[in-house]
Amino acid sequence: MAQRDEKIYQLVQDINDAIYSMDSHFVKVYQHLVTDDLSAKQMILIDFINKNSNVTIGQIAQYLNITSSAVGQLVSKLEEQNYLSRRINPENRREIFVQLDVAGVKYFEKEEEIRRFIVSKYYSKMEMDELEQLKYIVEKLSGIVLKESALDEE
Question: Among positive and negative, which fits the CA dihedral 9, 124, 132, 135?
């Protein structure tokens, strides 16, 4: 059993090294296209807002696992830079929604442009069945991680 565990470990290390190398290359080569000076937490926050509509401070706090006060500070800083804006929920005036503002929309437009370029330059060189296999494998691993994380939280 220990030999199998060691083989799995080595395969995972090789996979992680290859992904890290590829990601590092993308960052190095395409960093000039993204001039935004955002922290990792700010990027996660605006990504969450981009993927979800009508997001509240409470939902963001729960997602980031930080206090509502800390979220308020993050949002305020991003509001100053026009990445985010707040608006009152017309159906519940005590609730405030956070949404992308002008700079936030531009950020994701640039990100989409870079993603499409990477797909056309690199991924398009793979066979369709290889891409489908890669998608299947990554989604399967993601499902395992999320399921195990949910079990750990119980």
Answer: positive
